[in-house]
Amino acid sequence: MRLLPAALTILLCMVAGAMAQAPRFEALGPEVSDRQTGLVWQRCSVGMVWREGRCTGSPQVFTWDEARGLGRGGWRLPEIDELVSLVDRERSRRGEFPITDVAAFPDLAGRRGDPLTYWSNTVAKGCMLGDVCGFAVAFNVSFKGDLLNFTRKVPLFVRLVRNGAKNAAAASAPVKSVTADGRFEIDGGVARDRKTGLRWQRCLVGQDWQAGRGCTGIRVRLTQDEAFAAEGRGWRLPTKVELLTLIDRDRKSAPMVNAEAFPVTLPAYSDLRTRDPYPTGGHMFCVNFSIAYHNNCSRTYPIPVRLVSDAR
């Protein structure tokens, strides 16, 4: 066996080490690709333009409703777990601001006078008078895992994201299967009920389905008004009768629902919201999957939500 010269061996080790430590972000002009998540981000905040190697102009602020309407051509407002993925916790621990990669996002460098707070698309529980709120991340303050939430009319900054090639391929080719009891057809993050024809989101509002990982992200609790605000793109709050159809009375333990179709474990005695008003004012029908029966819940008390889509 022929041994490599010592100098060549050292060189090969250095090259291998450099390849293993490839930077997380790959700059692509006005975009930056995140090798860790597969997402592609706009390098400049909305309102700025990438020109001659830098972000020019001034970032604009938007209310939450305005921010949710900015997406075009695949670009969208990020979910809270996606936005939090940009936080560099080591920079935060060392007290270095902003707490993200300033080479990837140069528009944040030098903006010391404001908290650099950015909207996410994720609904948060009401923080004032039952108003609808959204989660946000501030990049100019220390991050300790606590999520910020603001009422929908507060103006904040926006950075848009889109799925990269890896994400798009996974989304376009979901794994289809049928639950063991034959009741539900599984198509990625959607479970179609063969009995009713309804299509259900497998994850609760605030979470996203990822192949191989299941429901990811942060499950949120919503007031009734917030739950109605979470509707869209064909997804809506279920009626009491529709939600009751998910109760699996053959199960021997709570929650009484098909765990293969709906893998998220609810807290003990947790209710899910419906769109139907309860005869007593200020309350709505909800369904409790621990006692396998309908209940009544306050409009203003936040509880989890599962959305449904009509048969097609």
CATH architecture of the largest domain: Roll
Q: How many individual β-strands?
A: 19
Q: What is the CATH C level class of the largest domain, in words? A: Alpha Beta
Mean pLDDT: 83
Shape: elongated
Low-confidence stretches: 1-5, 7-20, 169-173
Instruction: Report strand order across the widest sheet.
Output: 10-11-12-13-19
Outline the fold blueprint.
Layout lengths: L5 H15 L4 E4 L2 E4 L4 E4 L5 E4 L2 E4 L6 H5 L11 H5 L4 H6 L22 E8 L8 E6 L9 E4 L9 E3 L1 H8 L3 E3 L5 E4 L2 E4 L5 E3 L5 E4 L3 E4 L6 H6 L10 H5 L26 E7 L5 E6 L4 E6 L9 E2 L3
Antiparallel strand pairs: 1-2, 2-3, 3-9, 4-5, 6-7, 7-8, 10-11, 11-12, 12-13, 13-19, 14-15, 16-17, 17-18
Which features does this protein show?
312 residues; alpha+beta; Mannose-Binding Protein A, Chain A; five-stranded antiparallel sheet; four-stranded antiparallel sheet; 16% helix; 27% strand
Give a written overview of the molecule.
The protein is α+β, with helices and mostly antiparallel strands and 312 residues long. It folds into 2 domains: 24-163, Mannose-Binding Protein A, Chain A; 174-309. Helices cover 16% and strands 27% of the residues. The protein has 7 helices and 19 strands. It has helices spanning 6-20, 64-68, 80-84, 89-94, 165-172, 224-229, 240-244, and strands at 25-28, 31-34, 39-42, 48-51, 54-57, 117-124, 133-138, 148-151, 161-163, 176-178, 184-187, 190-193, 199-201, 207-210, 214-217, 271-277, 283-288, 293-298, 308-309. The strands form 6 sheets. The protein has a 5-stranded antiparallel sheet, with no helix packed on it. The protein has a 4-stranded antiparallel sheet with strand order 1-2-3-9. A 3-stranded antiparallel sheet has the order 6-7-8. The longest helix is centred in the first third of the chain and has 15 residues, at 6-20. The model is unreliable at 1-5, 7-20 and 169-173 (pLDDT under 50).
